[in-house]
Amino acid sequence: MAQFGVMVLQDDRSIRSYNIRNGDTIKLRRRLILQPKKPVIYLYSPSDIDVSVKLSLITEWSLSVIYPVVTIEDHGQRLEWNVRTHQDGSLTEHNSGLDVSYLFWEAKANLEAFPLSPASKPQPVDKFNPISNSLDDMDSVVIPVGKVAVYLDKSLKALGPHTEARTSFITYWLPSFLKHEYIALRFVPQAAYERAASLSISPQPDVVTRIFMLFRGIRMEHLANWANAQMQAERDVGWWVDVVGVDPVRAGDATLFRVLEWGGTEVFG
Q: pTM above 0.70?
């Protein structure tokens, strides 16, 4: 995708179709569009209860895949699941009668919603925007690909997810990690992620833990540009608890009504 004047150029159209001719001057700018992959939502209640889970996305995203399947509204940006929780952690979705372990959604970039300004400023760490987001030497860690699984397991354990969730998180992303020599990653502050993908759950949970990871591959010859991120990888992983803004003690308290979500995206470019 590139920008010409105030137009977003689509990959499936030719330059000539935009009335761009030989001799015209154009400025091309690549945008890093983030598309969330496999956010899954677990609900844990000490007793069986009926729960409404509403998900609302910002205009830059539209829901692309969901399970269990329910009606998607507002141009693909809003849905509601109604489920019955069970003490073993499973859920029954009322509309279909399906028994599931979690609720699943993914989203795609909503290109027509992107602002058509000549430039987009990088967003600070406490912001989260699908088209302009920070993943750099100051807010990330850089890890050799052979060590990223162990680092992630330690980090996720500190953040609160249980063993199955940690294992599912790592094994989902591992094939993407293995395409690279080094991985730069960070976790998005929960409050910033909530502004992009709002969850409204009734009855209100006692604790909500939402973990969303950004990562990109780094080549060995580019490591000099990531000196600080390599040093940050040596820190105790507990610092991510403050970055994300979660309460791992309460997240592990089985006497509470708890919600856990994990997801992520690979940043290209």
A: yes
